[in-house]
UniProtKB/TrEMBL annotation:
PANTHER family noted in UniProt: INNER MEMBRANE ABC TRANSPORTER PERMEASE PROTEIN YCJP (PTHR32243:SF18), MALTOSE TRANSPORT SYSTEM PERMEASE-RELATED (PTHR32243)
Protein name per Swiss-Prot or TrEMBL: Carbohydrate ABC transporter permease
Transmembrane annotation, as ranges: 9-31, 68-93, 105-126, 138-160, 181-204, 237-258
Natural source organism: Microvirga puerhi
Localization (cell): Cell membrane
InterPro entries with a match to the protein in the record: BP-dep_ABC_trans_perm (IPR050901), MetI-like (IPR000515), MetI-like_sf (IPR035906)
Bilayer topology annotation: Multi-pass membrane protein
Length: 273
């Protein structure tokens, strides 16, 4: 076998094995959702069984899935839009008009992601309680925006740095104001990067559970709270929990699959010149 063919074959096998390891928990969750509670905890696990839709029926009767899904969509999209609106001018300023402390500021912003969320839970909860933001969509949108803003700024800053400065300077010579420069020159040139950043932000917001469990109860509760509602003091009902998890992640899985090309295109934006 030719060495290059062998290397390609090995890389393909390793890639498929890695994909299998990553996808296996999702596959097992979907499989468990079609089992009875007894079969779900059977030892050894059963691969062959009679599928049942009982868990999905129970989940649908117990909670209003559409209500939770609508909250997830509105909160994720709202937080992404707000974070992007704040991050675009901030990243533009740091990419094209850097100061002595620009890199320090970027590192500080990224360092806030290393802080455990539970460390600021009590002050944020008290602020939300006093301002009436508990169990509201706008409250979660604000928290999710602050949560993802460092990542959004970092990514957009990286993408904006790949845009040639000569293009923006030519726009200034033609009389373009900063607002027109960003809107008519920078954003069209960085569209793949902006799109991939927005997609990643939506996914992060959709999967966030800590803040939704602590700051919502019913009215603004997203799908992560919907999943947690199927744990009880008596224990975990694995089959029903798997069914709830499956229908909760189904929209974001489909969304991620449909947007994977745009996401990869944006993440590799400027990698090859």
């Amino acid at each position: 076998m030719h060495p290059k063919t062998r290397e390609k074959l090995i890389a393909t096998v390793v890639g498929w094995l890695a994909a299998g390891v990553i996808f296996f928990p999702i596959f097992w969750m979907i499989l468990t959702s079609f089992k009875t509670e007894v079969e779900a905890i059977a030892t050894p696990p059963k691969l062959f069984f009679t599928p049942t839709l009982e868990n999905y029926v129970t989940v649908r009767e117990r909670a209003d899935y559409v209500h939770f899904a609508l909250n997830s969509v509105l909160i994720s999209v709202g937080a992404t839009l707000l974070a992007t609106l704040i991050a675009i001018p901030a990243s533009y300023a740091m990419a094209f008009f850097p100061g002595k402390r620009t890199k320090d500021l970027l590192l500080w912003m990224l360092s806030t992601k290393m802080m455990p969320a539970v460390g600021v839970l009590i002050p944020i909860y008290l602020l939300f309680r006093d301002s009436g933001a508990i169990d509201t969509r706008w409250g979660l949108i604000l928290v999710y925006t602050l949560m993802n803003l460092p990542i959004v700024v970092w990514m957009l800053y990286t993408f904006f740095k790949e845009v040639p400065k000569d293009i923006l300077e030519a726009g200034r010579m033609d009389g373009a104001k900063p607002k027109q420069e960003v809107w008519m020159l920078l954003m069209p040139l960085s569209l793949p990067g902006i799109a991939s950043t927005a997609l990643l932000s939506i996914i992060l917001c959709w999967n966030e559970a800590f803040w939704s469990l602590n700051l919502t109860t019913s009215q603004a509760a997203p799908l992560t709270t919907f999943i947690a509602s199927f744990s009880a003091p008596e224990g975990l009902f694995w089959a029903k929990l798997s069914a709830a998890s499956t229908i909760a992640i189904a929209p974001i899985l489909v969304f991620g699959w449909m947007s994977q090309r745009q996401l990869v295109r944006g993440l590799t934006f400027g990698a090859v010149k």
